[in-house]
Amino acid sequence: MAREHVLDVRGEDCPGPLVKVVRKIARMPVGDRLRVLTDVEECVRLIRETVEAIDLRIDVNDTGEGYWVMVIEKNLAKPRLPPRRKS
Amino acid sequence: MLTPEAIERFSRQLIVREIGVRGLVKLRNSRVAIIGCGATGSAEAELLARMGVGFIRVIDKDFVDLSNLPRVHLMYTEDAEKALPKAVACAERIKAIDPDIEVDPVVARVGPHNILDLVGDVDLIMDGTDNMDVRYLINDAAVKLGKPWIFVGAETWYGNVLLVEPGKGPCLRCFMPRPAVERRDVCDILGVVNTAVTMTASVAVTLALHRLLGMEADHDHLYVVDALRLELDKVRIKRNEGCPACSLHRYEFLERRVEARSARICGTNAVEITPPQPMRLDLPALAKRLDSARLVSVTEHTLKIAISDTASLVLFRDGRAIVDGITDEDEAWRIYEDIILSRIRGEV
User: Fold this and answer.
1) pTM of the complete model
2) Known catalytic residue: B187?
3) Min CA distance, A22 vs chain B (Å)?
4) How far, CA to CA in Å, does B23 sit from each of A23, B13, B26, B146, B337?
5) Which residues of chain A have a CB within 8 Å of the CB of B2?
6) Residue B346: pLDDT above 90?
7) Which CATH class name applies to A4-65?
8) Do A87 and B7 touch (CB under 8 A)?
9) Which residues pair with B158 in a beta bridge?
10) Phi and psi at residue B236, to the nearest 5°
11) Which of B187, B243, B246, B266 is catalytic?
12) d(CA B246, CA B297)
């Protein structure tokens, strides 16, 4: 049964929250979701760019209350980027 | 593959807007060859490795000597004691910094016979040599292949850096059409300050970073590092319509023949011996047939023999040798013939 995990990193500046998000995603079973709360806009950009680059789905919602909620769905066994180009 | 561990490792550069995770992917997919892994090349290698470049080929013909240690990066006293090839020492340390980097150490003299193979599969060539002839050879190869390369030179308190983008900007021969004889062996005459080398290498690797990230990389200016006054300046260089390499496509350094020879090495009291043909020697086996009293050390990469109290010979697997403590090229060749060639003749 898929679970939803919550990571509240409000009050923290990146890259700390980015590292926490990536570690959490790596340990989560496939199918689970991660809800991330941050109040730093730069963290939203960085986490979204990173999560998209490892081919996972992310939805970002501005609550209008000074923080954002991001929901990341782990739909791959291993978050990964495209394989290295061969010469 | 970019792992969560890689994202954590590079988290401090991921937050730089111009790099980000997309930049890290570009760096991980980048292939760089560094020609020469002494003071300049080892500084470049360490910076490129730590910033996450995915493939690094380090090419050097020499072994680590105690007198290198004040200037080089990635090399230690134990490497000098074992006469470890610089390329092997650099490769081992790069892997220790980041095991995910693919490193290709090449212990060889770079010449017209091998340079196209050594740089044909990389995105960028970095100059780590102290030899103008090799720089002209790199320039010929890079222009012929249409590959970018970064000219890097440092002596005393000063350094020069130029990103050469064949077809877009000037090449080395646009502003230095041919080697000036009196500029050879400058390291022997002038020496070099390690901070000037590292500053110059940092400028070069910054240009490499711009290029590999796909940012606008300046290929129109020669950067001039002045470590004495602590200044960085740049001089506009224009393409030369009569340039033998990038305008006329005459690659005379690529067309030179490699011959067996002995040659004094810049900045040392040593002579390098190039054998009549490339060899593939089993050095531990050869060591057993030599006078054991003379044997100083042997590894799979090098064999070191004492010639006298003040002179020694280091032999590489490809048959090259460096005779240290002797400056006469003919005498060095005779020693090589007597000790090495006479024992391996007919076996290689």
Assistant:
1) 0.87
2) yes
3) 6
4) 20, 9, 5, 23, 52
5) 53-54, 80-81
6) no
7) alpha beta
8) no
9) B155, B226
10) -70, 130
11) B187
12) 46
Q: Where are the domains of chain B?
A: 4-236, 261-344
For residue A87, pLDDT beyond 70: no
Q: Say which DSSP state B182 is in.
A: G
User: Per-domain residue ranges for chain A?
Assistant: 4-65
Distance in angstroms (rounded) separating the CA atoms of residues B66 and B79: 9
**Hey, CA dihedral for A74, A77, A83, A84, is it positive or negative?**
positive
B12: contact with A, CB 8 A cutoff: yes
Report which of residues B122 and A51 the model is more confident about. B122
How many other β-carbons are positioned within 10 Å of the β-carbon of residue B92? Answer: 16
Average pLDDT over residues B103-120: 95
Adjacent-strand bridge partners of B35: B59, B127
- Domain B261-344 homologous superfamily, CATH: TATA-Binding Protein (3.30.310.10)
Average pLDDT over residues B146-154: 97
pLDDT tens digits, one per residue of B196-231: 999 999 999 999 999 999 999 999 999 999 999 999
**B67-89 average pLDDT score:** 95
Asked if residue B16 has pLDDT above 50, the reply is yes
Of B8-22, B134-148, B259-273, which gets the smallest average pLDDT? B259-273
- Tokens representing B133 are 């002839």
Nearest CA in chain A to B100: A84
The secondary structure of B321-332, three-state, reads EEEECCCCHHHH
Mutate to test the interface with B, among A41, A54, A76 (most CBs of B within 10 A): A54
Distance from chain centroid for Cα B57: 10
Give the tens place of pLDDT for each residue, B287-327. 888 888 888 899 999 999 999 989 999 999 999 999 999 98
| Side-chain-facing half-sphere of A42: CA atoms under 13 Å | 11
pLDDT of residue B188: 53
Looking at domain B4-236, its CATH class is alpha beta
Across the interface, do A23 and B4 touch by the CB < 8 Å criterion? yes
Among positive and negative, which fits the CA dihedral B142, B34, B60, B116?
negative
